[in-house]
Amino acid sequence: MESHMRDEAALRAFVEDMARLLGDWGFPRMAGRVVFTLMAADERSLTAGELADRLGVSAAAISGAVRYLSQISMVAREHVPGDRRDRYRLVDDSWYEVTVAKMTLLKTLADAADVGAAAAGGPGTTAGARLAGMRDFYTWVQDRLPALLDQWAAEKAAKAD
Amino acid sequence: MESHMRDEAALRAFVEDMARLLGDWGFPRMAGRVVFTLMAADERSLTAGELADRLGVSAAAISGAVRYLSQISMVAREHVPGDRRDRYRLVDDSWYEVTVAKMTLLKTLADAADVGAAAAGGPGTTAGARLAGMRDFYTWVQDRLPALLDQWAAEKAAKAD
DNA sequence: CACTCATTTCACACAAGTGTGAAAGTTCGT
DNA sequence: ACGAACTTTCACACTTGTGTGAAATGAGTG
């Protein structure tokens, strides 16, 4: 049946697309490739060698990428005793986690805007009022995001029944 | 009164911080500096020369930045007749607009995930199900963002009464 | 302990982005 | 039309990120 056929060429293109997309957003390209190779894998985990093979890149590139991804808790390293190879596994819902993590940017923006508003002379000045407005917007959005994400989790759980 | 004093040094630091922050997210640094110099200005608009002076950068750098910012509709160029200098003004709520614009990324991500899910063999496969989950998440968030932003606009309008 | 396979580190090449100075192009006032 | 003020374009230097091959390190096996 067609719907159960893996289109390897299309998947490679997909991985590359996503890596480029994340790359535009400041995410290291190779790390993006690794994440989406794992996403696109039917196996639960892959070795560094498998990742290198599927991506056609050097072992060194994989090494750097998985180190980065481990640090930010996006992949887990599984050391199987009795095997020289480490296995790498995606942390559950890692793209969800990434999204959440990226949202800390909102707090950073809000904080910076607050500092700027004060430096501009407070809300009594044109610039101060403008920067305070920016701060309020990002603060407001940030405050409401957790509830939004909870709602997603709840709907997903309901669907799974 | 202290609260009406501009702290120029702190504002320059603020501008640089924000530019670096946006830079990490794929936004051109100099364009970021220009945006936040305008945000931090009490004047409604600034000339290229004023921007260059305040930032301590070359006129060429300003030229490139405002061209970029005009293209993405973040600053408006105001050509005052009888004056050789162009004036640059922030489009209202431009940081809000930027945020909204960036959210188109969610659709791009969802679309790419959909393609990936199909290439992986559909929801019957491990990878296909995983990618479909990613697609569903981004689609869901994207669907709910407009309402969230409308709510902000409504609350802001209510406060302004 | 020596052997072998897997991973990491390192120096390098290559590509992309960033900002500058100088020259060229525009626009207004006279 | 000329000159002055302002802006844009261009070639260059500098920095940063990216991935490679080769050497070094680490881990299991006989």
Descriptive notes:
- The structure is a homodimer of 161-residue chains.
- Chain A is mostly helical.
- Chain A contains 7 helices and 3 strands.
- Chain A has helices at 8-24, 29-39, 48-55, 59-71, 94-102, 104-119, 126-160, and strands at 46-47, 75-79, 86-90.
- In chain A, strands 1-3-2 form a 3-stranded antiparallel sheet.
- In chain A, a hairpin with a 6-residue loop joins strand 2 and strand 3.
- In chain A, helix 1 runs antiparallel to helix 2, helix 2 packs across helix 4 (59-71) and helix 3 crosses helix 4 (59-71).
- The radius of gyration of chain A is 21 Å and the shape is elongated.
- The first copy, chain A, starts with 7 loop residues before the first helix and ends with a helix.
- Chain A binds a DNA duplex (30 and 30 nucleotides) through residues 28-30, 47-49, 57-64, 67, 81-86.
What fraction strand of chain A?
A: 5-15%
Q: What is the molecular shape of chain A?
A: elongated
Going by helix content, strand content and strand pairing, the class of chain A is mainly alpha
Sequence of strands across the biggest β-sheet of chain A: 1-3-2
Helix content of chain A: 55-70%
Return the string of H and E elements of chain A. HHEHHEEHHH
Summarize the structure.
With 161 residues, chain A is mostly helical.
Could you outline the blueprint of secondary structure elements for this entry?
The structure is a homodimer of 161-residue chains.
Chain A: H1 8-24, H2 29-39, E1 46-47, H3 48-55, H4 59-71, E2 75-79, E3 86-90, H5 94-102, H6 104-119, H7 126-160
Antiparallel strand pairs in A: 1-3, 2-3
Helix pairs in contact in A: 1-2, 2-4, 3-4, 6-7
Chain A binds a DNA duplex (30 and 30 nucleotides) through residues 28-30, 47-49, 57-64, 67, 81-86.
